[in-house]
Amino acid sequence: MTDTRLAPYGALALRIALGAMFIAHAYLKLVIFTPAGFAGFLGQVGLPGFLAWPIMLAELLGGLAILLGFYGRYVSLLLIPILLGALMVHAPNGWVFNAPNGGWEYPAFLALTAFAHALIGDGAFAVKPAPSLLDAKPALA
């Protein structure tokens, strides 16, 4: 049974955690790894280095949007491909994320968390909550 009185605050907690995680990862790539270092890493794993800036900006701006509840459930859906890309990069390293080059469970967990956020919604105190995915109307009838 879902507690409808507290569910909006649970969604808020999920939104805060997910948004903060995306912002923290963008900060890590921008300040610690540096854009050039992250581009080099992408090249080492077989991805084009030019994806570094789009990934970092998506994480930063997407994290802020999720944190604020600005169409957060849609933003979470849009960020899932980045998380799935991270999952594919880390999958060969094994299960535990503290393994050399990180394991796959953390990106998998985050992808599922983003999907759960998209299903649940933005919750309490959202700046501009996105309507339910099931309420979308087709552009052409």
From TrEMBL:
<dbReference type="Pfam" id="PF07681">
    <property type="entry name" value="DoxX"/>
</dbReference>
<feature type="transmembrane region" description="Helical">
    <location>
        <begin position="108"/>
        <end position="127"/>
    </location>
</feature>
<keyword id="KW-0472">Membrane</keyword>
<keyword id="KW-1133">Transmembrane helix</keyword>
<feature type="transmembrane region" description="Helical">
    <location>
        <begin position="50"/>
        <end position="70"/>
    </location>
</feature>
<keyword id="KW-0812">Transmembrane</keyword>
<dbReference type="InterPro" id="IPR032808">
    <property type="entry name" value="DoxX"/>
</dbReference>
<comment type="similarity">
    <text>Belongs to the DoxX family.</text>
</comment>
<keyword id="KW-1003">Cell membrane</keyword>
<feature type="transmembrane region" description="Helical">
    <location>
        <begin position="12"/>
        <end position="38"/>
    </location>
</feature>
<feature type="transmembrane region" description="Helical">
    <location>
        <begin position="77"/>
        <end position="96"/>
    </location>
</feature>
<dbReference type="GO" id="GO:0005886">
    <property type="term" value="C:plasma membrane"/>
</dbReference>
<protein>
    <submittedName>
        <fullName>DoxX family protein</fullName>
    </submittedName>
</protein>
<dbReference type="InterPro" id="IPR051907">
    <property type="entry name" value="DoxX-like_oxidoreductase"/>
</dbReference>
